[in-house]
Specification:
With 120 residues, the chain is an all-beta fold. It is built from no helices and 11 strands. The strands form 2 sheets. Strands 2, 4, 5, 6, 9, 10 and 11 form a 7-stranded mixed beta sheet that branches. The mean pLDDT is 97.
């Protein structure tokens, strides 16, 4: 069973960079056919796919966030990370890491989520 756990600061100041880590167990992040993604859900809004990294290390980003988003991985720790730069209060959300095999947007396996507030 694939399990994912998000970690990172719950509070980020405006203009700073948000950095979150997803620790994966039950599967290798280099396992064939997996996509490892980040999704967020702002208060009162729907879920928004942010981007993903494939098992081969290729990255894919939501076009509206591409200029501010970076997803990377540490295969030695079986972790992948999200960095979102120049945050504003509109970036406040519950952030989830997820995984699936059918497409970039497959979130069959999802972490419990971590709430991020953007405030000075």
């Amino acid at each position: 069973q694939v399990q994912l756990q998000e970690s990172g600061p719950g509070l980020v100041k405006p203009s700073q960079t948000l950095s979150l880590t997803c620790t994966v167990s039950g599967a290798s992040i280099t396992a064939n056919n997996y996509y490892w993604s980040w999704i967020r859900q702002p208060p009162g809004k729907g879920r928004e796919w942010m981007g993903a990294i494939s098992s081969s290390g290729s990255t894919y980003y939501r076009s509206s966030l591409k200029s501010r988003t970076s997803i990377s991985r540490d295969t030695s720790k079986n972790q992948f990370t999200l960095q979102l730069s120049s945050v504003t209060p509109e970036d406040a959300a519950v952030y989830y890491c997820a995984a699936g095999t059918t497409s970039l947007y497959d979130d069959t396996h999802r972490g419990q989520g971590t709430r991020v507030t953007v405030s000075s």
